[in-house]
Design goal:
Layout (H helix, E strand, L loop, with lengths): L16 H15 L2 H7 L22 H7 L5 H14 L4 E3 L7 H17 L2 H15 L1 E7 L9 E5 L4 E6 L2 E12 L6 E9 L2 E9 L6 E3 L13 E3 L7 E5 L21 H20 L3 E5 L4 E2 L6 E2 L7 E4 L11 E3 L5 H18 L18 H7 L1 H31 L11 E3 L8 H13 L5 H8 L5 H14 L7 H5 L3
Helix pairs in contact: 4-6, 7-8, 12-13
Length: about 500
């Protein structure tokens, strides 16, 4: 199913121009650079017409002054980083557990897999991938290797704005990774397309323009691509890549099978936060104390050189005042700084943006003033964050298991390692551990009210246990201990 770009076709392809525009906008928010935001919103397309009224599209008679005082609050970056931290600050375990293989084979595979993941730095790469995924709505993981200077394959994180993907029924069936190279004259655009399909990888180099793929040229045209092969046959019949969607559906673009960014739908709120914070800082800037003085109070520099106060006297502002006026003294001017109004506005906007992105404000250190809440209440308020975390984990599980199985196959088939490739099982860890003492209090209350069975109590205390493990624990407790003679606290302390 080779579908490399045709000579002279548009770049990005016509059916991808809308998603690439979304990538550009969300990437600007993630970057957190005011200059990038201004550039992104400088030319608003016709179908992005509402964006022309945003704070970051604002122009004035003195654009330089407007730009100088525009302030960006990097909330978008915080959202993406928080999402990644929730998933991978405590990285998942990858367990080899397949009864179709002997115990010794599983043990051998587990040891080799652990070594492989440690050497390729998977923990750090997952943090990178998680942040990119949250910001741009998805991320690609591809397998890379080079037998000349590597003794093992590794995994590379690829941003979705560097890939042209083809989906079928929600599944990735082909993807072309795009690498751009600068030409010597700075006029031409060289693009390497590394096209992945089932069992094959094709490399193709194109010479074109910013908006046109141009013409396919030999790989030898550039030093960076000269050693690449036109076609690589894989030791498996599937893709050497996986795609991880952040969440689905992509609400803005119906019919696209890409994932949805955490920023989708909150761009206006992020823009309003920057506008409100800039207004706040403007009040502070304009609220500096000023002392109005007649120009005749200034220090004369000499004929033709004007007059001025000493540089340390920066609070003074000179005005031409009629010397015949009765009052020609010094006057103090101090504007009000609307601190509380701005603070409340900014915090309200941040609260709404964070909530709309799928998180509890408490996850970002935003507290509800005037409330003293118990640990249980706080956990209930954090539930939105944990719900979002759980949904994202489900999107990550299958792609991670697939890419790690293929990583083992490459390690065995290309680098001649001696073990059997086995698809691992992803075991997620909780970012926040349950308070056992708090759970014991709840269980004690249920016990006294005779409102819960032993099975329910075991589940409450051990939420991570499987159905089989819960049954085993209930049987163990009921068999080995006389519950009628012991308190629940005693039971909870039992090994």
């Amino acid at each position: 199913m080779l579908n490399l770009p045709e000579n002279g076709s548009a770049y990005p392809p016509e059916n991808h121009k809308h998603i690439f525009r979304v990538y550009q906008e969300h990437s600007a928010w993630h970057a957190g650079d005011p200059a990038i935001l201004r550039k992104t919103y400088a030319d608003v397309p016709q179908d992005y017409r509402p964006r022309k009224y945003m704070f970051w599209t604002r122009k004035g008679a003195t654009d330089a002054q407007v730009e100088r005082h525009q302030i960006h609050v990097p909330l978008a970056g915080d959202i993406a980083q928080t999402s990644s931290d929730l998933l991978f600050s405590e990285p998942p375990n990858f367990m080899v557990n397949n009864k179709d293989f002997s115990e010794s084979d599983q043990l051998n595979t587990q040891e080799n897999l652990d070594y492989l993941l440690r050497e390729c730095g998977l923990k750090n790469k997952l943090l990178e991938a998680g942040e990119t995924c949250a910001a741009l709505g998805g991320v690609f993981l591809r397998l890379v290797w080079n037998t000349e200077f590597m003794d093992k394959p590794t995994i590379q994180v690829v941003s979705p704005d560097k890939a042209i993907a083809t989906f079928m029924y929600g599944q990735l069936v082909a993807v072309g990774y795009v690498t751009e190279y600068d030409s010597a004259d700075g006029q031409d655009y060289y693009r390497l397309i590394e096209h992945h399909e089932d069992g094959l990888i094709h490399n193709a180099l194109y010479q074109g323009t910013k908006t046109n793929i141009g013409t396919r040229v030999p790989l030898e045209r550039l030093d960076e691509t000269a050693d690449l092969e036109d076609e690589i046959v894989l030791p498996f019949k599937t893709l050497a890549s996986v795609y991880v969607p952040n969440q689905r559906p992509l609400r803005r673009l119906k019919g696209y099978e890409y994932g949805r960014s955490d920023y989708d739908g909150i761009e206006g709120l992020l823009d309003a936060i920057d506008e409100a914070y800039t207004s706040w800082m403007r009040d502070i800037r304009l609220g500096k104390s000023r002392i109005i003085v007649p120009t005749e109070y200034l220090e004369r520099r000499g004929r033709g050189r004007g007059a001025a106060f000493d540089i340390d006297a920066e609070v003074f502002t000179a005005l031409e005042i009629d010397p015949n006026q009765e009052h020609k003294g010094i006057e103090k001017v101090q504007f009000d700084i609307r601190h509380e109004q701005h603070r409340v506005t900014v915090m309200e906007l941040i609260d709404r943006a964070v909530t709309a992105a799928g998180y509890s404000p408490q996850s970002f250190g935003i507290s509800i003033e005037g409330r003293a809440e118990s640990g249980t209440a706080l956990k209930l308020r954090e539930r939105k964050t944990f719900t979002t975390q759980g949904k994202k984990q489900r999107y990550w599980t299958q792609p991670l298991e697939e890419i790690l199985e293929k990583l083992q196959i490459l390690d065995v088939e290309i680098f001649n390692k001696q073990y059997k490739p086995i698809k691992p099982r992803v075991e997620w860890q909780d970012a926040v551990q349950q308070d056992v003492r708090e759970s014991a209090t709840v269980i004690e209350s249920l016990h006294r009210a005779q409102a819960a069975s032993l099975e329910t109590k075991v589940r409450l205390l051990n939420p991570d246990l499987t159905e089989e493990e819960v049954s085993e624990e209930v049987l163990k407790v009921a068999t080995n201990y006389n519950l009628a003679d012991q308190s629940v606290e005693d039971v909870l302390e039992l090994p």
